[in-house]
Here is the input.
Amino acid sequence: MRQGDSYVVNGQKIWIFTAQVAHKIMLLTRATSIDAITSPTQGLSLFYTDFDPSKIEGREIETLGRKAVDSKPLFIDGLEIPVEGRIGGEGRGFEYILHSWP
Here is the structure.
């Protein structure tokens, strides 16, 4: 959620590949209260920011026969993202993701 000139992100994502070497992260996350929208795809914002290991924890997922690429769930706790890290308009992130598909 937005707090002044930044957003604070909390949550988790499963099946992230090569997170152990990431310096940046792109997140699609809810920035508008679920009570203020009419569809679940509304109110999602897209962000590009630094991967802060003090706020993002990755844990290994044991896989069988798939060891070439590391897979992790990410647990995000209090990741602060400046408004400048938002891509496009607030609440339009899902729309941007859809337009990026061929």
Residues 93-100 form the longest helix (8 residues). The mean pLDDT is 90. DSSP finds one helix and seven strands in the chain. Helices lie at 93-100.
